[in-house]
Amino acid sequence: MSLVDEDKYALLLRKCGVENDPVRANAIFASILSSRCRSSTYLRNLAIEMFGKCGSVANARRVFDGIDNPNEFSWTMMITAYARNGHVDEARDLLERIPERNVMADTALLVAYSQAGHLQEARDLFDSMAFRNSVARDAMLHALASNGHLGEAKGLFDSGMPCRSIISWTSLLQGYSESGQFVLAKELFDAMPEWNVVSSTAMFQALARNGEIDAARALFDAMPLKNIVSWNTLIGCYAHSGQIDDAIAAFEAMPEWDVCSSSAVLSAYSDRGNLARAEEIFARIPCFNVVALNAMIAAYAQNGHLDSAEELFWRMPVWDVISCNGIITAYGSFRRVRKMEEVFHEMQERNIVSWNGMIAGYAFNGELEKARVLFDLMPRWDVSSWNALLAAFAQHYDALGAKTVFDSMPLHSLVSWNAMLTGFSQGLFLKETMEFFHQIPEPDVVSWNALAAAYAHNGHVGSSKLIFDRTPAKNTASWNTIISVFSNSGRGKLALDLELQMVVEGFHPDDMTMMSTLSGFTHSGVLRDALWCFSSMVGDHGVNPAREHYGLMIDILGRAGELNEAEDLIGSMPFIPGTGQWTALLSSCKLQSDRGRGTKLVSHLNPQKAAPYVVLAGIINAG
Asked: Which residues lie closer than 8 Å to 161 by C-beta, 6 or more apart?
């Protein structure tokens, strides 16, 4: 065996792991098997590690099983591959079979327990370890901090760590950042003896989550070293706050793009409804991998193009768990329950997200019993699993069922509290909503939005506005909620004023904002303002009108007697008009007593839909 060949293959395998390219990795490993290096345990260990990084656990296991005498690193790499991809049971089983336990294998499983939310198992494993080095202590601290047990994490940090590493400081800092405890994060960051790019990025994320975008950018600019994660965090910060132009500018300023940065910008355009630009970014990615393909599938699905999402999914040379999870979510959103089930049952590998996605899909489609049965079949539950089941009942106004799930939960996260609060608010349980809100340990902006919505659903528009005014750290959803409140109460002009105020205060209207604002004009009769609002969607806000926006504008024009303009607007739509648009125009024909126009539209009606024909019958009878 040539050491040169071995080094060459090692370099190629590591590159596949970095680039998350399992297709190329398969080809490289096949080449290794036909070369003089085929018996190299070193290369096989690297292949296990690489397949684990790419999410191909089955391939990693095949490589492991093909090693005649696996060494300590073989076992550790395989346990790590399982752990990295959420296969906690398999990682634990392999650890129990390892000839000689070592701190690396123990730590890998410790991290897996942390990521899966199995904190008690992490504690038990930590306590059973014969030797704990700084890596093990850092892993336990990370497990506690990442699962929200920050008091216990701080106790370990203060008294259980004879030597604190930069990883210790950063894990606790990330815990404070991710839990929204901005003040403690800032205090810890200022007390750190040194900063590295990871700790600076964690503080940067805390600032961004707290809405302090300018301070986050200042910290980014002050960082002496910036890596690809720093840049990607900056892009994500801008993208999640709706500042698409700044996200694009950061993307263009990056020294080197990677799949993550390209996918983040692609997703940002998708979130704004600009699918064309998302496709342009996708086309510019020099080497497609599963990450980029998954992002584009999600973009198609998010923007109503399920056929394109399906086509891209079935064209993929290899699927990972994320690919399947993404298409499951898409099928659920488009009410394709049977296809959703087919993909789930055919998946070779499932993680907790797969199960939770199925529960969410059943919930969206009103299949509460199936959601409950699937929940009971899950091999393990995490907080997200409980939250998915809780949301299933809450979304369908089953407050009693939701409360039963909530009371059964072993641990309540803020998401759990908010799901329960939302269920009460949507179900017109104002008193229960108020009482529940005051029980939340630390309400966030989602909690405040749900409380404002509860008042609005019960007809208390003024109180809803007061709650909105008191909401700390408002987000786009806060503005959408209050704009919708005024629109639904027939105060279209006030809704438009709020949209303008929203822009002045630095928020970017999205498709829901425009839907809410336009809805306010359906009964107000202020055509000029409605036309201005509709025309500003693309030009001022970068929001491409969807079918629902066109339907509202057609209805507004028709109610104002502008039937010619309404019909012209249908003809100018960038997609084939559907039943909703023609029915809106038909209703306007009835309102304006235009029998001739109404009867001419019959050729556009869907014979499978009864509603348009009922409207048409009304027009004929009125004539």
From this structure: 134, 137, 141, 168
What is the rounded distance in angstroms from the CA atom of residue 574 to the CA atom of residue 555? 18
Token pair of 435 as six digits? 């009482």
CA-based nearest residue to 287, from 21, 9, 15, 47:
21
Distance of CA 464 to the CA centre of its chain: 28
Domain count, the chain: 1
The helix/strand/coil state of 305 is coil
Cα 200 from Cα 532, distance rounded (Å): 44
Structure confidence at residue 466 (pLDDT) = 92
Q: Closest by alpha carbon to 330, among 342, 315, 340, 316? A: 340
Distance CA(479)–CA(423), nearest Å, equals 20
- Other beta carbons less than 10 A from residue 535's beta carbon: 12
Classify residue 79 by burial, with Cβ atoms within 10 Å: 0-12, 13-18, 19+.
buried
CA-nearest of 4, 5, 29 to 17 is 29
Is residue 404 within 8 A of residue 434, CB to CB? The reply is no
**φ, ψ (nearest 5 deg) of residue 566:** -65, -45
- Is residue 430 included in any domain, yes or no? no
- Structure pTM? 0.51
What is the number of alpha carbons within 13 Å of residue 129 lying toward its C-beta?
A: 24
Contact 157, 166 (CB under 8 A): no
**Dihedral angle sign, alpha carbons of residues 173, 176, 179, 181:** negative
pLDDT tens by residue, 69-124? 888 888 988 998 888 888 888 988 998 888 888 888 888 888 788 777 788 888 88
Residue 211 domain-assigned (yes or no): no
Torsion sign (Cα): 117, 418, 471, 433: negative
Q: Report if residue 73 sits inside a domain.
A: no
Rounded to the nearest 5 degrees, what angle is found at the Cα of 274, between the Cα atoms of 272 and 276? Answer: 160
State pLDDT tens for residues 46-73: 888 888 888 888 888 988 998 888 888 8
C-alpha pair distances (Å), 7 with each of 2, 12, 13, 70, 117: 9, 9, 10, 20, 38
Rounded to whole angstroms, how far apart are CA atoms 235 and 251?
7
Report the distance separating Cα 291 and Cα 20, nearest Å. Answer: 8
Q: Which two tokens stand for residue 139?
A: 């892993």
Domain assignment present for 88: no
Calpha distance 598→498 (Å, rounded): 36
Task: Give the C-alpha separation, 340 to 553, whole Å.
Answer: 34
Please state, in angstroms and as integers, the Cα–Cα distance from residue 461 to each residue in 129, 418, 467, 499, 553, following that order: 59, 21, 10, 17, 25
Give the domain extent around 584. 551-623
* Residue 193: C-alpha distances to residues 2, 170, 183, 199 (Å): 46, 11, 18, 11
CA distance 578 to 547: 8
Cβ-Cβ contacts under 8 Å for 505 (sequence gap 6 or more): none
Separation in Å, CA 574 to CA 225, 546, 577, 601, 606: 46, 9, 9, 20, 20
Distance CA 50, CA 218 (A): 36
